[in-house]
Specification:
- It contains eight helices and 16 strands.
- It has helices at about 15-25, 40-45, 70-90, 140-145, 170-180, 215-220, 225-240, 255-260; strands at about 1-5, 30-35, 55, 60-65, 95-100, 105-110, 115-120, 120-125, 130-135, 150-155, 155-160, 165, 185-190, 210, 245-250, 265.
- An eight-stranded mixed beta sheet has the order 5-10-2-1-13-15-16-14, sandwiched between helices. A two-stranded antiparallel ribbon has the order 3-4.
- Strand 7 and strand 8 form a beta hairpin.
- The chain is globular.
- The mean pLDDT is about 95.
């Protein structure tokens, strides 16, 4: 069992990823796909006159402030990307089934209605935020799709216990899904080659990180979005996933190359 997270950042080559998913399926691999949508949501927000606001938490994590309008835009963006991925996979003979964490309460999350941020050196509290922290994965819904010959393609939207749609981090959603279904590996495809020791050098990726060293990498090496990818990797390891690979999603055959060791391998 392999879970593949397709990053939503600029430069990720969707066509090559989809073609490689088809190759992996033909070779007998059973896959679940989770995708992001950050770039498309940013573009759509700007077109609709509601550009994104990115905020930094006190611990240094950067995230999208999701007010009600931003949530609507994110739903539109991820829904469009989900449909496109499913269509491309279907054209290649893969019986893909698109859904989000709303469907069948796949991702049940606790809403973080307030978030604490640091802005211009000052600590602030933002209210009316529609982001969530995943608490439960309805894995039976995923298994039911797989048992009927479908490949789940999942958008990172969750549902609260009161029925609200929530924006959740795609990498961590993939980690929760991989851990719950007991996947052997989680491949996180990004627009960089892995965890870089030098942000200016795309070839400076660190090839291996042990579970023992992952917290040090989170605190002292990772920057920006990479911090969340490593947090997701740690959560996946804690849930029993044997190996997480953070790899380049801009190249040809990105999954095949990641499974052969290209990228940052994190082993339990």
């Amino acid at each position: 069992m392999l879970v593949v997270k397709i990053g939503g950042a600029s430069g990720v080559n969707i066509n090559s990823i989809v073609a490689d998913i088809a190759n992996q399926t033909e070779s007998g691999e059973k896959l679940i796909v989770v995708h992001g949508g950050s770039e498309r949501a940013t573009e759509l927000g700007e077109q609709l006159g509601h550009p994104p606001r990115f905020v930094t938490s006190a611990s240094g994590h950067i995230s999208r402030y999701t007010d009600k309008r931003t949530l609507e835009i994110f739903l539109m963006a991820t829904g469009l990307l989900n449909r496109r991925l499913v269509g491309q996979l279907q054209r290649l003979g893969i019986n893909a089934f698109g859904l989000s964490g709303l469907d069948g309460r796949l991702f049940l999350a606790e809403r973080k209605s307030t978030i604490r941020i640091v802005e211009n050196g000052k600590r602030k509290i933002l209210r009316d935020d529609y982001t969530g922290r995943i608490e439960n994965v309805n894995i039976e819904a995923v298994r039911a799709l797989q048992d009927t010959g479908h490949m789940p393609v999942v958008a990172p939207i969750a549902i609260s216990d009161t029925g609200e749609a929530l924006n959740v981090d795609g990498d961590r959603a993939a980690a929760h899904l991989a851990g719950t279904i007991k996947a052997d590996k989680l491949v996180i495809l990004s627009n960089v080659s892995g965890l870089l020791s030098d942000l200016a050098d795309p070839n400076s990726y660190i090839p291996n990180i042990s579970a023992h060293d992952i917290d040090d990498a989170i605190n002292n090496i990772a920057r920006g979005r990479m911090k969340r990818k490593l947090i997701a990797a740690r959560e996946a390891l804690d849930a029993g996933v044997k190996q997480i690979i953070i790899a380049n999603g801009k190249i040809e055959q990105p999954i095949t190359k990641a499974l052969k060791g290209e990228g940052t391998l994190i082993n339990g």
